[in-house]
Amino acid sequence: MTSINEKATTLLGLHQPGNPVILPTVWDAWSANLAVSAGFQALTVGSHPVSDSIGKPDNEGITFDELLHRISQITAAVDLPLSVDIESGYGLEPARLIEGLIGAGAVGLNIEDTVHSEGGRLREPQEHADFVGGLRQAADAAGVHVVVNARTDLFVKQVGDESDRVDRAIARLKLAAEAGADVLYPVGRHDDATQKRLTSELPLPVNAIGLPDQDDPASFGPLGVARVSFGPFFQAALAAHAATLLGRWS
């Protein structure tokens, strides 16, 4: 079995702007094994698919302990680097989050700036950066370079005026980079010009979201993207196929 430090180093090294790592978003051991069989090098776990899989809502409708239980099942089934969407942190301190993730065998995380436990407010830019910094410090103290993917929801929540939204997202994510992030995630569907601006002006590898049943996998590299994940869309595409199959028999 690969050591957790080796997995963390591998995951970080896969982030190459222009040659993006594809991290299929899984939610249980079954979906993780599907991705392993398809030949992927690393995986990410999405909060939305995990929540759906146990009949609970997204946006911290599950507890951190429930998430860790699922992560442990996945890491017991597959021996690949695993990054985990921890939403906005479940109201927990960074040290507790890092301890739990490492204990469950994960080596990466997504951290959102939407605080679900406080009415869905957006953290202030420095507030989010400080939380990112806390995660980095906790990982350093634990001796594992957990790959921190700092996410902003400015685009998906359409916060503020559209005319300067890209500027504000870049400024916000630059603070997260200075605080110790490894990857930056301006989550949303962007036109090519916006995506190129994000990847050219942000100082770290950029994560983009892909639609597995619609997007061209080769389209992300020329835009400078370093990582592509599927969010809830892989599970949704499978659900659509399942509905077609089951519909023949209902």
TrEMBL record:
<dbReference type="InterPro" id="IPR015813">
    <property type="entry name" value="Pyrv/PenolPyrv_kinase-like_dom"/>
</dbReference>
<dbReference type="InterPro" id="IPR040442">
    <property type="entry name" value="Pyrv_kinase-like_dom_sf"/>
</dbReference>
<dbReference type="GO" id="GO:0003824">
    <property type="term" value="F:catalytic activity"/>
</dbReference>
<protein>
    <submittedName>
        <fullName>Carboxyvinyl-carboxyphosphonate phosphorylmutase</fullName>
    </submittedName>
</protein>
<dbReference type="InterPro" id="IPR039556">
    <property type="entry name" value="ICL/PEPM"/>
</dbReference>
<dbReference type="Pfam" id="PF13714">
    <property type="entry name" value="PEP_mutase"/>
</dbReference>
